[in-house]
Amino acid sequence: MKSIIYTKNAPEPIGPYSQAVKTGNLLFVSGQIPADPATGEIVSGGIEAETTMVMKNLQAILTEAGAGFEHVIKTTIFLKNMGDFAAVNAIYGSYFTADFPARETVQAAALPKNVNVEISVIADLS
Fold it and tell me: pTM for the complete prediction?
């Protein structure tokens, strides 16, 4: 059985998908882009501002599901430019304190709304 997770504190989906889906003890959070949930606009200020907004969006969805970054077991980071890896990694890493999740980081030719970063997560809620 699956449950749809939704919060107004994260951006509205821009297609036919949910912000997150919970099934059993697993939470699958759709890729988040640096859209401000209040305006729907992409934040400006470069890769650091974009990554911070993405992480805040993920945090809002995790919170709605009763979880936090300590529950995350897997992440996928999509970058428009692998040259941004160090900057993204520094901000991303500040949201995790121990028992880091598994992860891959891939460069994508293009991302939704021409953003520089998108991140999805899977969390274990048990």
Answer: 0.97
